[in-house]
């Protein structure tokens, strides 16, 4: 949906009636697709730092935490489908980044469950799936065994209490245990929220323009 007009397929001749219907549909949705939501001060990319953090991931996780007012938020990297270029940001661009129509889910997890969740980034995974975070920072060590790689999790510089309860926002895919993050199936006091795309749009609109995001040390890798 990045462009209002789709390129023709090589080697194919569209049926005139079908082509007409497509043109009419594209004309109808063009005002929505091309609607400007905000202005990005710089390029926001999915590419991860050596620790696993990304600027675009931080922006999305912050939007989700703000939408439900929770202590923390976690975003799966596979749910971020495109980069965001500097300049005017349209609805179509944001839809391309988050096209799945997942809703947000608020739940409660203990500090220990948050440690367990973060350790699942390597456990039973075909490759590391480093969650994008908001509201917390953590340190991990690749020299430690899978299942025990998280060294420390902190909130505002203070280690979280493994026995305390915290509110967390994730998307509905993760809340259902997607990408083998099964700890989230244990989340209590669940409450549904808006679509992830709507949360991102509202968050960007509320930011001072042009808005920015960066890799800021939310995730630290020791080895």
In the CATH scheme, the class would be: Alpha Beta
Coarse structural class:
alpha+beta
Q: Secondary-structure element order, as H and E?
A: HEHEEHEHEEEEEHEHE
Integer average pLDDT: 92
Q: Tell me about the biggest sheet?
A: 5 strands, mixed
Beta-strand content estimate: 15-25%
- Structural shape: globular
Q: What is the count of helical runs?
A: 6
List unreliable stretches of 5+ residues: 1-6
As laid out across the biggest beta sheet, the strand order is 5-2-9-4-10
Helical amount among residues, as a percent range?
25-40%
> How many extended strands?
11
- N- and C-termini, Cα separation: 40 Å
The CATH superfamily turns out to be 5'-Nucleotidase, C-terminal domain
What is the CATH architecture term?
Alpha-Beta Complex
Count of spatially separate domains: 1
Task: Please state the CA-atom Rg, rounded to the nearest Å.
Answer: 19 Å
Q: What's the CATH topology label?
A: 5'-nucleotidase,  domain 2
Please provide a brief summary of the model.
This protein is α+β, with helices and mostly antiparallel strands and 223 residues long.
What topology emerges from the helices and strands here?
Layout: H1 16-33, E1 36-40, H2 55-68, E2 72-75, E3 87-90, H3 91-97, E4 103-110, H4 111-119, E5 132-134, E6 137-140, E7 150-155, E8 158-159, E9 165-171, H5 172-175, E10 188-195, H6 196-206, E11 219-221
Parallel strand pairs: 2-9, 6-11
Antiparallel strand pairs: 1-3, 2-5, 4-9, 4-10, 6-7, 7-8
Helix pairs in contact: 2-6
């Amino acid at each position: 949906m990045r462009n209002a007009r789709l390129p023709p397929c090589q080697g194919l001749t569209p049926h005139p009636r079908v082509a007409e219907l497509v043109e009419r549909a594209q004309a109808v949705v063009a005002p929505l697709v091309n609607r400007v939501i905000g202005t990005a001060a710089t390029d926001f990319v999915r590419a991860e730092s050596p620790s696993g953090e990304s600027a675009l991931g931080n922006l999305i996780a912050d939007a989700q935490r703000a939408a439900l007012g929770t202590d923390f938020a976690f975003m799966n990297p596979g749910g971020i489908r495109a980069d965001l270029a500097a300049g005017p940001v349209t609805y179509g661009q944001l839809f391309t980044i988050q096209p799945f129509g997942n809703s947000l889910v608020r739940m409660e997890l203990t500090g220990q469950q948050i440690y367990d969740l973060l350790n699942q980034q390597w456990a039973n995974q075909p490759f590391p799936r480093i969650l994008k975070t908001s509201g917390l920072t953590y340190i991990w060590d690749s020299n430690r065994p899978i299942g025990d790689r998280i060294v420390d999790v902190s909130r505002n510089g203070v280690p979280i209490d493994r026995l305390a309860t915290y509110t967390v926002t994730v998307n509905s895919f993760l809340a259902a245990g997607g990408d083998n993050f099964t700890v989230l199936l244990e989340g209590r006091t669940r409450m549904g929220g808006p679509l992830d795309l709507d949360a991102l749009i509202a968050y960007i609109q509320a930011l001072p323009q042009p808005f920015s995001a960066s890799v800021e040390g939310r995730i630290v890798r020791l080895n």
